Structure formats: structure tokens, C-alpha cells
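@here heads up, posting the sequence + SMILES for the glutathione run so it's all in one place. Ping me if the SMILES looks off, I pulled it from an old spreadsheet.
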Amino acid sequence: MIDLYYWTTPNGHKITMALEELGLDYNLYPIDISKGEQFSPEFSELSPNQRIPAIIDNAPFNTFKPISIFESGAILQYLAEKSGKLIGESLTDKYKVLQWLAWQVAGLGPMAGQNHHFIHYASEQVPYAINRYQNETNRLYSVMDKQLAQTEYLAGNFYSIADIACYPWIRIHAFQSIDIEKFSNLKRWLNNIKTRPSTIKAFEVASRINTQPTVNEKASHLLFNQSHVK
Ligand SMILES: N[C@@H](CCC(=O)N[C@@H](CS)C(=O)NCC(=O)O)C(=O)O
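bot reply: prediction finished. Complex C-alpha cells:
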């Protein structure tokens, strides 16, 4: 059984989406990042970066000892390798998936995250930062849209962990002040993934855990004033 340490944020949704798609059983341990639960010694042991998500697989493949993993990209790759699904069948397809996965965790996630931050959460309006991150987020959307003009999914005509990594970030396009209507291929992809039974289940799980926005005044102090690990 897999233990998932999770909160109802884009990086958390990636893992419930993958587990539901793969039909893997899991125990869910909510880590409420708005209350600082990510800083507990127990969770920090598992995730030294003090960020969700993290997993422990108590029955891993290839070894008998439980394995613990942090970083959503590494977790998605592990789950795909464990199940032999969502990662393509040939070496070429596998690396098409992994390049888009790396693109998401190093590009779309951080840039869209800064975009949210400067539009919604920054204590002062900084037009340069808003403009910089909006432009870059928009540019990244256009990269996906161009790819999705050629293939049904990001890495080809098969659903993969690359699509799963991107979906929770694109789903909140309005929050990022990005006009999805400009990106017809991306819109088709978004609506297609939204209606998958595994996506619906993953978001039902989220709504059982938390229906409130994660960032409120108290949480913003906790989340946006970190300069060292605790
Ligand atoms: N690169 C990490 C990012 C993880 C991350 O930023 N998680 C956020 C929630 S989406 C978090 O735990 N934030 C807690 C905090 O900022 O203290 C990954 O992909 O797993």
C-alpha cells in the first residue's frame, strides 16, 4: 500500500490523479500547509524540502524495503515505472514523456506559481513582476498549445504522467489571468482530461479533504516568509 502525504494544491492533485488512473490503493495523510504541518519533524524526515507531495511505498517493486519519495515529478515517474503505464512503451516515447514532465516541474509549475503569487498574494503590486510572470506563463501555454496541435496528448497520442503533471496547473487558467480561449488545442486537451473518471475521482477526494482556499491571511504569513527550513 502507498502512503500519500498530500494537500489540495496543484502538486498534490498530480499524485491523486495518477494513483486513481493507475487504480493503485493508497492511504491519504493530509498535510495542511496553511497550518504549517509541512514543518513537522516527521514530515520533514520524509520531505526535507518541507513541501507536499511525498509518498512511502510499503510494497515497492525491485526491493523489499519501503521506499519514500518527495518531489511530484519523481513520484509520478516512480508510479509509472512501478505500474508500467502512463510512460509510453518505447524508449523514444518514455523520453518524450520525461522531457514534458521535466518541462512542467522546472517551467510551467514555478512560473505559473510566481504568476499567482504576484497577481493575488504579494503584499504590494509589482507591475514588472506581474508582467514578467504573466508573459512567461502565457508563453508556456502557447508551447503546449502548439504541441497539442500535433498530438492528442503532450508526449503523443497516449495519456501520460506529463499530462497529469500539467493538468492541475492549466485547470486554474482563470486564476492565472490567462485567456484559455486563445489556445484551442489546449482547451480541447483540458476538457478531455477533466472528464476522465480518474480526474473526477481525484477531485472528489480533494473536496472531501478541504474546500477552502489554502492561502488566507494567516497562512500567507507562514507560506511567504520562509528563508530557512525549520
Ligand atoms: N517542486 C515541488 C514543489 C512542491 C510545492 O511547492 N508544494 C507546495 C504545495 S503545491 C507546498 O508544499 N507548499 C508549502 C509551503 O510553501 O510551505 C514538487 O513538484 O513537488
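MO: Strands lie at 2-6, 26-30, 54-57, 67-70.
MO: One more: Residues 91-121 form the longest helix (31 residues).
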